[in-house]
Specification:
Elements (H helix, E strand, L loop, with lengths): L1 H6 L3 H9 L5 H13 L17 E2 L5 E5 L7 H4 L7 H12 L20 E5 L12 H18 L5 E5 L1 H15 L15 E2 L7 E5 L4 H6 L4 H14 L4
Parallel strand pairs: 2-3, 2-4, 4-6
Antiparallel strand pairs: 1-3, 5-6
């Protein structure tokens, strides 16, 4: 898989290779089981049931890094954060920030476009209980590293959605930017900021847009708006 990732010459080439990955047997079995059994509300839909590529601008100045696709969201629609409650919150906030042309995303062909932004996840297959194993995370890492390398010329800031994405970023520093990760690693928190110092993008922490966080008020629309305002400033978009 490492060789396949490294051979990808551009984002469409990488997206096609990602969608054809069968490296993790547990994740393959789960994504295909979900696609076959389906949720009752979507029983008439054909699920994507494959790894989910990134989405957004090839010349992005902001990258949003998530954990993994949702079983009945991206795993169903084929586009990250599309078709689930987390995406409803995320894209509404991006629209308020002027980073998306519409506030909702229900299907891969619904006309959504992103401005100055690309979204992808550390793990590309939907995992059981939304919990990839460390081995699955590391197996999937070459896709993440190659995608970051392809957008690196323009990216100025990375928004890490949750502690998993925050932790997944540090190996990217070494593999893509040739920079030594800080020691000790900065702790994740909402609003945490690590400066890349001009050699790598800045990193912003944001609570994940999961229902657990948004339904309980741990993450509010105002908090998300604050993150995107800050990201735009760091990216030179304001």
């Amino acid at each position: 898989m490492l060789a396949r990732a490294q051979r990808a010459s551009d984002l469409p080439d990488l997206d096609g290779a990602i969608a054809d990955c069968f490296a993790c047997s547990r994740l393959v079995a789960w994504r295909e089981e979900v696609a076959a059994t389906r949720r009752a509300a979507f029983r008439d839909q054909e699920y994507w049931g494959r790894p989910v590529p990134g989405f957004g601008a090839a010349d992005a100045r902001i990258v949003i890094l998530g954990l993994a696709p949702a079983a009945h969201g991206g795993n169903r629609t084929g586009r990250i954060f599309t078709g689930d409650r987390s995406g409803d919150v995320l894209f509404a906030a991006m629209h308020r920030a002027g980073l998306a042309n519409q506030p909702t995303s229900v299907a891969a062909d619904d006309g959504l476009t992103l401005r100055h932004t690309r979204i992808f996840s550390a793990v590309r297959c939907a995992p059981p209980d939304n919990k990839p194993t460390p081995v699955e995370r590391d197996t999937c890492a070459p896709w993440l590293h190659r995608e970051v390398r392809l957008v690196a010329p323009t990216v100025r800031v990375v928004v890490a959605l949750g502690a998993f994405a925050w932790a997944a970023w540090w190996p990217v520093l070494r593999q893509v930017y040739g920079a030594r990760p800080p020691s000790p690693r900065p702790r994740f928190s909402h609003g945490a900021h690590w400066s890349g110092g001009g050699t790598a993008p800045d990193l912003l922490g944001c609570y994940h847009v999961s229902q657990q966080n948004t339904f309980t008020g741990r993450l509010t629309p105002a908090m998300l708006d604050g993150i995107f305002t800050r990201a735009k400033g760091l990216a030179g978009l304001e």
